[in-house]
Amino acid sequence: MNALRADASWPPAPDQLVVRINPMRRRHLRAVGRIEGQVYPRPWTHATFLSELAQRDDRCYLVAKVGNNIVGYAGELFALDDAHVTTIAVDPGWHRHQVGTRLLLAMARNAVSRGSTSLTLEVRVSNKAAQELYRRFGFAPAGIRQRYYENVEDAIVMWAHDITGPEYGHRLDELDMTVRGRTIMDRRP
Question: Rg of the chain over CA atoms, in angstroms?
């Protein structure tokens, strides 16, 4: 059982929740792998994460922590003017605590700071909750990748364009204001 959940103060009041966003490091991979195994039928391997972390020039991977516990993570890669969200996952015990929103805000702001003009990602056709989150961030469906997941389920390809403009910055600020509690970026990605 998660130590935070065993505490009498669980769950924390939304306004009291403090989530720290840190760059992902090798030492985080055991916890990341545990979450990965809970949320994905075909989880990335430890070696895959190590390979991604080694590509610092064109990748960014972050973890979300509550206390000493990793409760989520996200990653993106950069190619030309685009940032591609490669993964985002939240521990099922931490769903509905806006961890995914916090991580996606960090990913979007990082993409803007690195000069990306567009964001893209794939999402399972069946994952309506994630699709709704992405729509709030300005992502719109642009196509389908057939049998993308496990060679069975289709993926919706989604894009958010013009992320360097003031309108997108305003969108991110508005989303940030809806997040209860505090989000602390410990170090720049």
Answer: 16
Residue 2 has pLDDT above 70, yes or no: no
Instruction: Write phi, then psi, for 162 (nearest 5 degrees).
Output: 55, 45
How do residues 113-162 score in pLDDT, each as one tens digit?
A: 999 999 999 999 999 999 999 999 999 999 999 999 988 999 999 999 99
Angle 166-178/99-113 helices, nearest 10 degrees? 160
Neighbouring-strand partners of residue 123: 156
Is 40 annotated as catalytic?
no
Query: 61, 73, 134, 149: which one is catalytic?
Result: 134
Q: Where are the beta strands (DSSP E) in the chain?
A: 18-23, 59-66, 69-79, 82-90, 118-124, 140-149, 153-160, 182-185
Question: Distances in Å between the alpha carbon of 30 and those of 16, 70, 102, 161?
Answer: 27, 10, 22, 34
Examine the residue annotation and report whether 134 is marked as an active-site residue of this protein.
yes
Interatomic CA distance for residues 77 and 59, integer angstroms = 4
